[in-house]
Amino acid sequence: MSQTERKIAFISATTLLLSSLEYLIPKPLPFLRLGLANLPLLIILDGMAYGPFLMVLLLKAIGQGMVSGTLFSYLFLISLAGTLSSGIAMKGAKHLFGARVSLVGCSLLGAFVSNLCQLQVASWVAYGPSIWIAAPLMLALGMATSFALGLLAEIYLQRGTTGKALTQGTLYLTIPPTEERTPHKHLLFASLLAIVAILLARGLITLAVITALMYLLQWVAGRKIRIIPPVMLIFSLLMLSLFEPNGKVLLSVGSLAFTEGSLTIALTKALRLLSLLAASQSLSASNPKIEGKAGTLLALTLAYFSLLTRSFRATKGSVIERVDQALQATAEGNSTDKTPPSAHKKPINITLFLFIVASVLAVALISRIVY
Amino acid sequence: MSIALVWLPRYTWPMKHRWKTLLGDTLILIACILALVVITKQTASGGSGYVQIQSSEATYRYSLNVDREVTVQGPLGETHVVIEDGHAHIEDSPCPTKSCTFQKPISSARSWIACLPNQVLLTVVGSDSENQEVDDVAN
Question: Smallest CA–CA separation between B50 and chain A, in Å?
């Protein structure tokens, strides 16, 4: 594996480390994001050619999808649109203006373009055109956070050691121990069937039953179940339904009203999206294998990421110092533990898994007949 | 913006470098602010409002953006309301004169159509008030 490929994987892994760090930072608003994961992208903006840079963007999006288990859901499409558009915009701005633009300007432009693309894709795949109501707030917040992020990138490039070494090409990267995961063909096929069933299901009650079953499936698959994101999804879809009234008025305040039809549509949509998210989690648990060069790069990225996370946990000091130390240790192969993490997870109960998928399929088919 | 850029390069950047990026950064900032203003204006004026249909039984609300046909129940029978191209009108009603069906389709805020015999009232709610037109109401 060439140094460029290692560099691509290493930088992508750094973005993954930072996006998982971002989860740890308490935020006043749940949808407010600092976009820490874009920091490495800004730092390498000048020193990397278009091809490898594009590869980093793809690996960042796919890696985030794999780590969070959302790779096979609508969330991945939104995130991919944001990552690709902002990356290309930032790279383009740097290419066009050269030394006449700082990382602050690139960061501003990247975040703006990214938010626009994410809103457009979100309106296509999940929320409908009324999501544009959130655009002014999202774009304004994005400008503030990306400004701060651009400053942070400039400061890091001056002070941090790894960033400089990366751009100057003086960093020699060692290959980390890779984890071998056995793919479960049964679970992969069953999860895909569940996705088909979710798309076929009709009616609010059917989808409520299926959502419950899918969460059970996610639990059986050994994936962590999170509470806040689904609550936020339901809440935001219900709020957006205020702007698309449809049917009998249940409760009205001024020109806004909850109507029977739009509430049903919003809840149905929310439950279907939640079921699909759970299916994506179960699909991720089946360790699908990606073949070819892209697959090797992805495996290398995830291996670096796993090493980075463990090195980060072992370090002390301020967050920036710890990130820098973890990057150094991982790059040089000096990480404290060298053994690949053995899968301590308890094995998935395949019979139960298949039984739940069969129930989901049955419920969906019955709903097609009844409705 | 300029404060930040002066403060930032304190570490190593030479004086000349400091001002070099100002032009590009300011251009990007201005472009983003302009786009934000345009988008904010569009979302504020977007949404052509809702039509509210009050019958003797319940109140209904529909977006004017989506074409559809709605049937509501009144004391005399069913009144058919049609929403198309952002306008709403009464297509048919079981009233004796059918005068409500001859009224011009409504779209701007506070314009209305009533079918008094069947106790059905159509009002447009929460539309953009700038281009309000006075609908002819003939009865």
Answer: 7
- Chain B within 8 Å of A34 (Cβ-Cβ)? no
Indicate the residue type of A202. R
Contact (CB<8Å) A248/B59: yes
CA neighbor of A303 nearest in space, from A18, A38, A9: A9
Please provide the CATH number assigned to the domain covering B50-125: 2.60.320.10
Q: What are phi and psi of A108, to 5 degrees?
A: -55, -50
How many domains does one find in chain A?
2
Search chain B and give the residue with CA nearest A109: B28
Helix (H) or strand (E) segment spanning residue A112: helix A103-122
Q: Is residue A126 part of a domain?
A: yes
Nearest to A163 by CA among A43, A5, A33: A43
Model confidence pLDDT, tens digit, residues A71-91: 888 889 999 999 999 999 999
CA dihedral A69, A72, A77, A82 (to 10 degrees): 20
Q: Are residues A90 and A239 in the same domain?
A: no
Query: Do A366 and A304 fall within a single domain?
Result: no
* A98 and A144 share one domain: yes
A252 touches chain B (CB under 8 A): yes
Q: Read off the pLDDT of residues A82-120 as tens digits, 9 standing for 90 and up.
A: 999 999 999 999 999 888 899 999 999 999 999 999 999
Residues A206 and A264 in one domain: yes
Which of B5, B11, B59 comes nearest A102 by C-beta? B5
Range of the domain at A244: 185-288+346-370
Tell me what ipTM this predicted complex has.
0.82
> What is the pTM assigned to this prediction?
0.82
pLDDT level of residue A338 (50, 70, 90 thresholds)? low
